């Protein structure tokens, strides 16, 4: 992972256009190729980013840029969509690289871990006639919670959350991009499963062809949830 603190301006072009004017920011270039642009605020969310698969290339600034003080230009291009993140670097204040090794993955809290286990035991909730392939199915960027196949043998990757938000959809999207390259799995469908799914997350998931599944934890444990039922 490369960490660069620089005075920079950033432009994103593609499905949408966005501009970050000149300021001091943290640039995080990860081993998976992604680039994240952070400010000293906004919690964990970057101001802008490019997700893999993408490629970073360093360019010399044009004459007009150089005369304005730009010393280097980074161009990060998404290899599927062609979207581009262009970073004009005026001054580098810090530049370091670190080998982080293999991450063991997020340790889920009790309820989320139980949801994953129960859903693995009740895969018919995902698709009728489905069978479990594996829990914590490995990918190059971390394990997807469940991999199942439906009655026709179609692979389905399932991400399980207590509360489903946009970050969870983005996470599953990255998994699907990688899994879809495996000829033994492709095409891979996605299911975003949670006790509660935020409206924005549902819209984003459905726009990307990901099916949303709301889980009733009490019902899955075999305990009445208290919700009124016909029978």
TrEMBL record:
Its EC number is 3.1.-.-. GO terms for molecular function: DNA binding; single-stranded DNA endodeoxyribonuclease activity. The keyword DNA-binding applies. CDD domains: NucS-like (cd22341). Keywords: Cytoplasm, DNA-binding, Endonuclease, Hydrolase, Nuclease. It comes from the Bacteria. It is an enzyme of class 3 (hydrolase). Residues 111-230 form the Endonuclease NucS C-terminal domain. It is found in: Cytoplasm. Residues 2-104 form the Endonuclease NucS N-terminal PH-like domain. GO terms for cellular component: cytoplasm. InterPro entries: Endonuclease_NucS, NucS_C, NucS_N, NucS_N_sf, tRNA_endonuc-like_dom_sf. Its main location: cytoplasm. NCBIfam families: PRK03298.1. PANTHER family: ENDONUCLEASE NUCS. Cleaves both 3' and 5' ssDNA extremities of branched DNA structures. Belongs to the NucS endonuclease family. This is Endonuclease NucS. The lineage of its organism: Bacteria, Bacillati, Actinomycetota, Actinomycetes, Micrococcales. The gene is nucS.
């Amino acid at each position: 992972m490369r960490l660069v603190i620089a005075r920079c301006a950033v432009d994103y072009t593609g499905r949408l256009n966005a501009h970050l004017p000149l300021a001091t920011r943290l640039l995080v270039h990860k081993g998976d190729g992604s680039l994240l642009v952070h400010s000293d605020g906004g919690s964990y969310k970057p101001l802008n980013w490019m997700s893999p698969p993408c490629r970073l290339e360093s360019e010399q600034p044009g004459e007009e840029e150089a005369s304005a003080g730009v010393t280097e230009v980074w161009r990060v291009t998404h290899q599927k969509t062609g979207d581009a993140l262009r970073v004009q670097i005026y001054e580098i204040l810090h530049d370091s690289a670190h080998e982080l090794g293999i991450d063991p993955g997020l340790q889920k809290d009790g309820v989320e871990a139980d949801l994953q286990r129960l859903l693995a035991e009740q895969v018919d909730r995902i698709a009728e006639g489905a069978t479990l392939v594996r829990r914590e199915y490995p990918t190059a960027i971390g394990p997807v919670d469940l991999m199942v196949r439906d009655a026709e043998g179609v692979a389905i990757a399932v991400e399980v959350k207590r509360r489903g938000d946009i970050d969870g959809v983005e996470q599953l999207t990255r998994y699907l991009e990688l899994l879809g390259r495996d000829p033994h799995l492709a095409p891979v469908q996605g299911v975003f499963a949670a006790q509660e799914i935020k409206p924005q997350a549902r819209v984003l998931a459905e726009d990307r062809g990901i099916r949303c599944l709301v889980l009733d934890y009490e019902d899955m444990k075999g305990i009445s949830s208290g919700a009124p039922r016909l029978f």
